[in-house]
Design goal:
The protein has 389 residues and is α+β, with helices and mostly antiparallel strands. Helices cover 13% and strands 30% of the residues.
Length: 389
């Protein structure tokens, strides 16, 4: 499925939303339960020099603040995380700061790149970047001994409201070297994971849970409510590898996989834009439909997996090729998977296209249930700015 929003920067509109005048820290406006379908405006923004990160480094870990409420977790989950940071976003009108967690994803030449929620810089009520831009700061526990108490002013490197993340940069004028975590595969349904948070007192907190069998676009969902300041924080697996980022603090928080974020940052760093193939339709996974609907598809049409078409964009290429709402695509370039994995595949196609590789059309096996007809179509690959279906 395709994203339903764009990406703004610090002078345009940004992808996260924050409540205008929160009464307390962490009083964030919940995101809408269902994203809007159809074409969404997308903007790109980079604050600072926008320089491209070099290679990642993995220095030896440093001691951090003690962890709380980690009973029953493996040592890899309980261990201090030098790459876990706290992010504050303070409006210039003097209202209280919004607080998030963040992850160091890149370190090079005394500059660190911090992954966190787009809600640190984006007003979800007005669907734009905060104007004026709030004061952004990254609190680094391992730098608490420095004169600035480990608090560094941050600039916006990039914001993406489709996948609901932002990357901030900080300049560390010292001999301090930041550590970067190991990244694992993105979370899959049923995985047991832990969501980390670092509060304003630099105490690490953890919430254990599973990835539930719920589906909405490229997001998966975490079974437990986040700890305070957990928005923007990492999800880790049993080996302590970062596998995703928590996007909101709903009863079942949405999570975006780390591989999707990595590909988006790679595209932005190399090409100064976002990109993904425009399909002109939205899907649901057949295997995640209710059991009655699955049984009907299997017994009457012999369909066990694939994607059911939920929406077709008016005058899109898909519509011109005869794809209609309610059709089932049983094979997409020979693959059948879940939506987060499918999104990862689409971004890989965008990376290949931007790198000048020949990208052939998508081969689709389409079942029209009303006419009980099956056909194969070759859907041309159209690379959009990343905000369109």
């Amino acid at each position: 499925m395709e994203p339903k929003s764009g990406l703004p920067g610090d002078d345009g509109g940004s992808p996260w939303r924050r409540r205008g005048s929160p009464a307390e820290d962490q009083e964030l406006e919940p995101l809408p339960k269902k994203r809007n379908l159809g074409k969404q405006e997308q903007e790109s923004a980079a604050a600072g020099d926008g320089s491209q990160p070099e290679s990642m480094t993995y220095p030896a870990s440093q001691p951090s603040k003690p962890t709380r409420e980690l009973v029953g977790c493996r040592p890899s989950a309980q261990a201090p995380k030098p790459w876990l940071v706290h992010v504050s976003s303070t409006p210039l009108d003097g209202t209280k700061a919004l607080r998030f967690s963040g992850t160091v994803i890149q370190w090079d030449n005394n500059r660190a790149w911090i992954l966190t929620s787009y809600r640190a810089v984006f007003c979800t009520i007005d669907e734009r970047l905060y104007d004026p831009k709030p004061k952004l700061a990254v609190h680094v526990p391992k730098a608490a001994h420095l004169p600035n108490n480990g608090i560094f002013d941050a600039d916006i490197f990039v914001v993406n409201r489709v996948y609901q993340f932002t990357v901030l940069t900080i300049k560390v004028e010292s001999m301090l070297e930041m550590e970067v975590p190991t990244h694992g595969r993105s979370p899959l349904y049923g995985d047991e994971v832990s969501a980390l948070a670092l509060d304003e007192k630099m105490s690490m907190m953890l919430r254990r849970g599973t990835i539930t069998w719920l589906e909405e676009d490229h997001f998966v969902f975490f079974s437990s409510k986040l700890r305070p300041c957990g928005i923007g924080g990492p999800l880790i697996n049993h080996d302590g590898e970062v596998i995703g980022m928590a996007c909101d603090d709903n009863r079942q928080p949405s999570v975006v996989g780390i591989s999707i974020i990595q590909k988006c940052v790679e595209i932005w760093a190399n090409f100064g834009r976002f990109a993904r193939p425009r399909l002109g339709m939205c899907f649901r996974t057949v295997e995640l439909l209710d059991l009655k609907r699955q049984f009907q598809l299997r017994s009457k049409y012999g369909i066990k997996n694939g994607f059911i078409v939920d929406e077709v964009v008016y005058q899109s290429t898909a519509e011109k090729y005869g794809v209609r709402r309610g059709d089932v695509i049983t094979s997409f370039n020979g693959m059948s998977c879940y939506l987060p994995e499918f999104e990862d595949f689409l971004l890989s196609v965008a990376v290949a296209s931007l790198n000048g590789k020949q990208v052939n059309g998508f081969k689709l096996e389409v079942h029209n249930l009303l006419q009980q007809a099956k056909r194969t179509i070759i859907l041309p690959v159209e690379i959009s700015d990343g905000s369109e279906m």
